[in-house]
Design a protein that fits this description.
about 10% strand, single chain, alpha+beta, 3-stranded antiparallel sheet, elongated, 6 helices
Length: about 210
């Protein structure tokens, strides 16, 4: 009845909804596919690997001052021309060498100055009496050994105490006195000086 009324009243018919258009979706897919193809075509080609070349070394030219050490340039002992000595010259050279080696050395250099006990000094410096020994009335003596140089002076560093009575009282005073003594030196018999010994006595007098 409603249908009949609608037809009679002349109402327009409602249009049926049309199915959705899928064309844009298909175009989007085609467009997306084409972009991938473009990207693949636009990718750069892989670079070709070039093998590394070996460095070339050029030998420097040999200067005039550079020594040639090649085997062809090295001389052997057999190639060297050495002077030849006859037996007479060889014997003379050997005798000269033996004479130099076996030459007698001066006695002063080998064993030191010779010992001379008879020589008397030219100058005696009087020893200073130790004050402590004078106050206690102590007397004594010191025997010293020493070296006399070529100029007649006593070498202070060579003075040695051989005997002291009493011990530990007069040694230093005796050394100081002896270092200022002077002796005569014979340049012919003792050109390097000599060694000697002296006994210095310490005795109290009435004036001291």
């Amino acid at each position: 009845m409603f249908i009949a009324l609608a037809q009679l009243s002349g109402l327009p018919k409602q249009n049926q909804p049309s199915p959705p258009d899928l064309a844009p979706i298909q175009l989007f897919k085609l467009s997306q596919s084409s972009e991938l193809q473009i990207r693949q075509r636009s990718l750069p080609e892989a670079p070709q690997l070039i093998p590394a070349s070996q460095p070339s070394y050029q030998q420097a030219p040999t200067s005039a001052h550079t020594r040639d050490t090649s085997p062809a340039k090295l001389a052997t002992l057999s190639d060297l021309s050495l002077p030849k000595l006859d037996n007479a010259e060889f014997k003379r050279g050997l005798s000269l060498a033996n004479a130099i080696i076996n030459a007698p050395q001066p006695a002063n250099d080998a064993s030191g100055p010779s010992l001379n006990l008879s020589i008397q000094p030219q100058y005696r410096h009087p020893p200073e009496y130790p004050l402590a020994a004078r106050r206690r009335n102590i007397e004594g003596s010191v025997t010293l050994e020493f070296n006399v140089q070529a100029n007649g002076q006593v070498l202070a560093s060579s003075i040695k105490v051989l005997e002291a009575t009493p011990s530990g009282v007069f040694e230093q005073a005796a050394k100081r006195s002896l270092s200022q003594w002077r002796f005569p030196v014979d340049q012919k018999t003792a050109p390097f000086g000599f060694k000697s010994r002296q006994k210095i006595e310490f005795k109290l007098t009435h004036d001291q």
